[in-house]
Amino acid sequence: MExxxxxxxxxxxxxxTPIGNARDITLRTxxxxxxxxxxxxxxxRSLRRLLEIHGVPLGERPLVAYHDHNGAKAxxxxxxxxxxxxxxxxxxxxxxxxxxxxxxxxxxxAQEAGYPATSAPxxxxxxxxxxxxxxxxxxxxxxxxxxxxxxxxxxxxxELRGVPATLVYYESPKRLGAMLRDAAETLGGDRPAAxxxxxxxxxxxVQRGTLNELSQIYTETQARGEIVVLIGKGDSETVSETDxxxxxxxxxxxxxxxxxxxxxxxxxxxxxxxxxxxxxxLAGEQxxx
Length: 289
Ligand code: SAM
Fold this sequence. Notes:
Blueprint: E1 11-15, H1 27-35, E2 38-41, H2 44-53, E3 63-65, H3 71-83, E4 87-91, H4 104-112, E5 117-120, H5 125-132, E6 140-145, H6 150-159, E7 166-171, H7 176-187, E8 192-197, E9 205-210, H8 211-220, E10 227-231, H9 241-252, H10 257-268, H11 272-288
Parallel strand pairs: 1-4, 1-5, 2-3, 2-4, 6-7
Antiparallel strand pairs: 7-10, 8-9, 8-10
Helix pairs in contact: 3-4, 6-7, 7-8, 9-10, 9-11, 10-11
Bound molecules: S-adenosylmethionine.
C-alpha cells in the first residue's frame, strides 16, 4: 500500500517489532513508522523507545495507546482516522501483533469497514524458537499460553496429546516448572522438548531434553526472562492401550469399525492398523453380548 511519492497510502498497517534485539526490525517497518499519519501501540513507551533507537521522529503525530483494556474505546478513534483517509500503523509491545497480543479486533473492524489493511512481517518468538529448538518444524501447532490452574492446564495439554506436530507454548518463568511437570505427566515424560529463553537477547539460551529432564531442571532452578516451550510430537508408544481401548469403544457407539479406526488413529496420532484390529475385536465382542 505504501510507495506513492515516498508517503503511505491510507489504511491500516500492522507492523512487527523486535522481541529483544532492537536491530531486528525491517526496513519496511521503519518506513511505515516514519510515514504513517497516526501511530498506535499496545505499549506507547516501548514504541517511543524503538523510534528513538532508530532515529524515527514522532513529530506532531498522534501516538495512540491500543491494548486489551481500552480496545473498545480506542478503536473508534483509529477507525475515524482511517475514515478520514489517513494511514495508521499499529505495533504490539513486541513481536507480531495478534500472536498472543492485541490487534485482532482492530484488524477485523478495519477489514469489515472496507479500509485497506496490510502487514509488515517481522519477528515473532514462536518462529524464532522453532528455528533453534532442534525439533521438527514441518508441522507445528502454536497454542499460546496455557491456563494458570493445574487442572485446566492438564486438560488443555491433554487435548493436543495425539497431535502429530511440534507443540509450541508461551510460558512465564514463574510457571515453567509446574507447566513442565504437568506436561510430563499428561503427555509422557519421554517426549523430546526444548525451553527457549531470552531469544535474540544477551542471555539467549536453549535447553533441550525430555519433558522429565527439563521439568527436573526447572523445578530445581527458577527460570528467568521470556520463555517459549516446545514439545516434540508424540509417538504411538506414549498413548496407552487403555486410552486406545476407551476411545475405540466410544467411537463404536456411533460409527462403523472402519470409521472408528480412522477417527481414533487420527485423534491419538497412532497407526491405523492396530486400532482397526482392536475395533474389529471390540465390535465382535459387542456383537456377542
Ligand atoms: N507477539 C509476540 C510474538 O510475536 O512472539 C508475543 C507476545 S506474548 C504477550 C509474550 C510472550 O512471548 C512471552 O511471555 C514469551 O513467552 C514469548 N516471548 C516474547 N519474546 C521472547 C523472547 N525474546 N524469548 C523467548 N520468548 C519470548
